[in-house]
Here is the input.
Amino acid sequence: MSRYEKQLLLPEFTQEHQDLLKNTKLLMVGAGGLGAPALPYLAGAGIGHITIVDDDVVDISNLHRQTIFKTSDAGKNKAELTAAYLRELNPEIKITAVLQRLNVGDDIDGFDIILDGTDNFESKQLLNELSIRSKTPLVAASVEGFNGTVAIFAGFDKNAPCYHCLFPELPLDCKSCVEGGILGTVAGLAGMYQAHLTLCFLLGIGDVKPGTILSLDFKTMRTQALQLEKNPECAACGKAQYGARREKIEAPVIPLLHPDELKDHVVVDVRTFEETFEKPIENALHIPLQDIPGRYAELPTDRPIAFICRSNKRSRVAAEYLYARGYKNVCVLDALAA
Ligand SMILES: [Zn+2]
Here is the structure.
């Protein structure tokens, strides 16, 4: 009892909640920047069975954000080290380490929840597919620079979105930590938000449900909670998953607009807050790309919409996202790209 005493003192947290956590089988894919901060809290809370998948080894450059590892751990497998750490933290729960990479053909049935601690888009798409196939909710997290996104997906549910509903296209200018650099606390905070969202979801605390997206800006300290709807046309979880196969949807052709061709367009700047601050665009509405799913309804349906960003890539993602939602008069404003 004393191990969980402090959470059991909360009016929101009863012995039933504790038992629920004890009976939960959690899969964490990746024991790096997100898994390392998230897992100790999940083990500490009493999640009964935690499986950690990671084939990677500790590098000295990981330590500023993956603080469960020590300098002497360099070269050792992360899943194995994390399992040892968690077993000492809470010997009453079961921990399994899998020292491999997850593959498309893998069978991941039997888990109650999957946590995405990977750092690249391909792995995230794969986890999304496995989540849909095994009908297991997915708590995804990602960081880039000073921005974090943490969200819950359940594409197998006909009313809940999947990861692909949010990111239908490869975000071309998204950098991984390796390329883009990261402050240790940013990864740590995102991992802890992921653990927190997982606990709230499992315990039914607050209004956390599939489709909940937390958009975190660790520079302005701005946090937004959004609710994403399922995209009925989503290639990963749309209608095709439930009924008969449907016709292949043609990819929309998004026109590229020269600034001279602007008429009564609503110009939407989809860059980050810091980019907009550095180089503002006059008369543009600012909605960062990651907020588009939660805010696109603010845009008028009876006027043409032109998206603008640094390299036209995020603009294209935004335009295609709106196109799929019935906004047929969308384009990319080719003004900033070199
Ligand atoms: Zn989807």
Notes: The radius of gyration is 21 Å.
